[in-house]
Each structure stands twice: as C-alpha cells, then as structure tokens.
C-alpha cells in the first residue's frame, strides 16, 4: 500500500466564451488544454470578423504614435512572445501560420513627406526603438520596385507579420483538439448575472450555466445584454475597407511589409498582396465605397507603381474593436466571474500571445500579470459613472 500523500486537484471552472475571434479561441484553447470545460459561442463563423479582416502586421515599433507610450511596453512584450507562440500553436494545431520576419519599411512617397517621416523617426528613436533611417536609394536596394519618387525610408527589422487567417484556423483547430466545444452561428442574447456573480449566458432563451464568462466579442462587446454599466466594455466599431491583389508567387514584387502615407501593403507567400485600410467612424456600415477603394489603390500606386497590372483578388470591410483610449480592455470586471478581452483597436493580432496567456492565467488561478494591470476596465470607471444614466458611450 502506497504511503504517498493524496494530491487534491483544484476543480477547473466551466467557462462560456462570448466571441470566437482570436481572443476567444486563443483563451479558450489555453483553458481547455488546462482541463476546463469550455464552450465558445460566435454569432457567425468563428474568427470571421476583425480577426479575419486584419492584415497580420506585428508592428509594435513603427505603429507607435505620440500618446501611446503606455501601450508600447505591452506591444513590445507581446511581439517578443510571437516566435515561441507561433511554434507552439503550429505544433498544437498541425497548421502553419506563415510567420515572416523580413521586417517593415516605412517610406516617404515624396520629398514633402520626408520631413514628417523624419519627425516620426526621431520620436521612435527617443523611445529607444531599433529603427534605421534610409535614403531613397538605400530603400530601393531593399525593395527594387519602390517608386523613383520615394525619397527616404525607415527600416524596422523587428516588426514582422503573420498570416492572420491562418492564425484563426490554427486557433480554431487547437481549441477543438484540446477538447473545447465550438458553437458557431449561435448569438448570445445576454450574460446571466445574479447577485453580482456571472452564472452563465442566455442563448435563444435558454440558460447555459458556467462558473466563469469571458466577454471577447470584439466590436460587439458593448452590445451584449445583461451587463451592468460598470462592467460593460466601452468598445465601438471602427470601420476599415481593405482589398488584396494577386502577385505571381514565384516572382513577388516585394517582400517586406511596406508603409506609406495613408497605406500599408502586406505580401503573402501565396502571392496575395494586401492593401489597407481606411479608418471610418461609421458604426457597422459594411459597404465598400468607390472612394475608399480608390484612395487605397492611389496611395499604394504612388509608392509601388507595379501594382497597376495586378488583378484584384478580394475586397472587404472589417470592424476594429476600439476603446475610448485605443487600448485593450483585459482582465476582471466588477462582476465576479465575468472577464473581458476586447478593445484591441489595430493591435489584436500583435497582442494575441500576451492577451491569451495573461487572461487565461487570471481565469485559471487569479493571477493578474503586472503588464495588463493598467489595461483593466476600471480605468473607465469615472466616465462610466457620469454616463450610466443615459446609457451613452460618448
């Protein structure tokens, strides 16, 4: 008879996840792999909203703007996690993510743009970011098809990319392989809250019980019923129109991610060339417009004129889930058992590794990582108290 002590295993919570994008699937994967019973609910096909519409840029450095310094540390931490995260997810799913590390070029389309680019470069250098100033000639040696008018550029070797659609498919597969249950085309009506405690969700009038609920519904996170004002994430949709062109995969016209005035261009190994994206405060307006598409094509043509002969492959609209301060909303809420992971704005793919690990750690054992503490929902508490009586998001 063994004299070994009995090990009491902590009961894992049952979890209902509202939203099947990168956050919902990724956190669901971690929780299911840890032994939780996890159900993910999505109003459409899992991962086919903002996660699918993105371009997959991992650009913590070149995307940093004045006023975003507090977010920079979070972005850099998650970016550093990406190589190991990609390898782990590929092993768990059996799918490739097409992670690419050629780097990112930011170019001045004309001499008039060079002064603004120089200011941005100096700002990034003041933050100790590893970026390099290039002349137009040096930039064309890296990307020979850049327009002759490109007068200067900045190279960020540490800003990479991943195929966001492959990321969605891999997270979906890893979640299912870990034992999670996915409910697609299943809209959540409300979160069931009793006595300040999340008890589950309501779907088609039926109650689905859970010990914990994760609200990760992207741009729709504010619209889920049953959530009191203090726990309702102030997230709105920020419309972006995008399109893709088709290069010859064996002879692509560029390899780096490319940024120019009003445009970014992202090459894929299959020859897809993604052009994005407009920024429009138009709610959930899903219409493609002639003006939006024209501006993208014109801006891309100015810095990469060889796109003129490429066929258009696809056009689409996405809705960035954007909070009041353009930063994510992560972690616990005033409702016991209700956790949020939303509001990532343009950084959803970049912040995937950190969001997935940090939020799942909190849901498993209550550990709140220091890096996400400034990005809790409590930072909006003062404004929410002012607007609770009207229900306005301002």
Quick structural summary:
Helix content is 29%, strand content 25%. The protein is built from nine helices and 19 strands.
Shape: elongated
CA-to-CA gap between the ends? 67 Å
**Helical amount among residues, as a percent range?**
25-40%
| Arrangement of strands in the largest sheet | 5-6-4-14-15-16-13-17
Low-confidence stretches: 1-8, 384-394
Identify the notable features of this structure and list them briefly.
19 strands; disordered C terminus; D-Amino Acid Oxidase, Chain A, domain 2; six-stranded mixed beta sheet; FAD/NAD(P)-binding domain; alpha/beta; single chain
Commentary on this structure:
The protein is α/β, with parallel strands linked by helices and 394 residues long. It folds into 2 domains: 14-67 and 165-234 and 324-387, FAD/NAD(P)-binding domain, CATH 3.50.50.60; 100-160 and 237-323, D-Amino Acid Oxidase, subunit A, domain 2 (D-Amino Acid Oxidase, Chain A, domain 2), CATH 3.30.9.10. Helices cover 29% and strands 25% of the residues. It is built from 9 helices and 19 strands. The strands form 4 sheets. An 8-stranded mixed beta sheet has the order 5-6-4-14-15-16-13-17. The protein has a 6-stranded mixed beta sheet with strand order 8-2-1-12-19-18, with helices on one face. Strands 9-10-11 form a 3-stranded antiparallel beta sheet, with no helix packed on it. Helix 1 packs parallel to helix 6 (164-177), helix 3 packs across helix 6 and helix 3 (69-93) crosses helix 8 (352-365). It is elongated and about 65 Å long. The relative contact order is 0.18. Mean pLDDT is 94; it is low at 1-8 and 384-394.
